[in-house]
Amino acid sequence: MLVFDSATEPKVTALRQVWKDRLGGRAAPLLAIALRGDVAIICGPAGEDPPIRRIEAKQAERLCIRALSEPDRNAALRFLHDALPSLETDLPGIRNEGLLSEHELARGARLRPDWMSAQTRAAPVLGTAGIDLLRRLGFGIEKADGVTSLLRTGSRDRAVAVLLDAGETPEGAAPRFQNLSPVSWALAMADQRNLPWVVVVQGDRVRLYPVELGVGVGRRGRTETWIELRTGLMRQDQAALLWLIFSADALKPSGTLERFSIRLHRILRQRSSWRIRWA
User: Fold this and answer.
1) Would you give the distance in Å from CA 226 to the centre of its chain?
2) How far is CA 82 from the centre of its chain?
3) C-beta neighbour count of 154 within 10 angstroms
4) How far are the Cα atoms of 56, 161, 163, 225, 277 from residue 170, in angstroms, in the given order?
5) Closest Cα partner for 102 from 270, 241, 258, 246?
6) pTM for this one?
7) Over the stretch 185-213, which tens digit does the pLDDT of each residue have?
8) Other CB atoms closer than 10 Å to residue 214's CB: what's the count?
9) What residues contact 182, with CB distance under 8 A and at least 6 apart?
10) Whole-angstrom distance, CA of residue 235 vs CA of residue 143
């Protein structure tokens, strides 16, 4: 990592030249980061003409911490290639597969009366990972079996949680789960216990699956319907989404996620009514 302060926003050609000079022809990933106030201009990590991205300074700090925590340069490069394109979207660090509306996530959620309080509570949680992330989201945690835990809100169990090891994926068969995928194992456990949610955590990545069939705007199968946040990549001004969707307050009965879904259902029903009216 090469980090330096800049009084003005550097030109693309100048920043790339700084990157190339520092790299010195070595076959290693490198990020050159120019800091200008609350903004970070990033060049790298690889290529003849490495891409330039403009993101929040705090977001860049979390990105660097996460990349430096990888076990070797190849793992760091894989992480950066996976993470950096997300930073240029409306919802950096957020991947939504048919559970909620992209428009509501990017814009509508900010109109909620509890947005600012959720923002305040979520901001200190950004960048946390693993079981510490679940605790800081307000959950009580109790072991269910050798590979899953129960997440408790107040006195009630509300979700089955799986903490993945490095190299595991939610959908890939794994020996720890008797050659089932971690998410299939967790969904079966949630079915047995009549719990509505499955939470999968790997590092700073937290993913939420509904257990009930037919939930979500995409109307897909259970293993294909989810939303995922990476606490190390989210923008500071979108931190509230972490609390509104993933916290103990969100997953409790009549919690913020349920109210979010009810509001979304009303909006979609209203839009459907307009289409029918004008057909």
Assistant:
1) 11
2) 12
3) 10
4) 30, 12, 10, 12, 42
5) 241
6) 0.83
7) 999 999 999 999 999 999 999 999 999 98
8) 10
9) 147, 162, 164, 168, 169, 170, 172, 174, 176, 200
10) 32
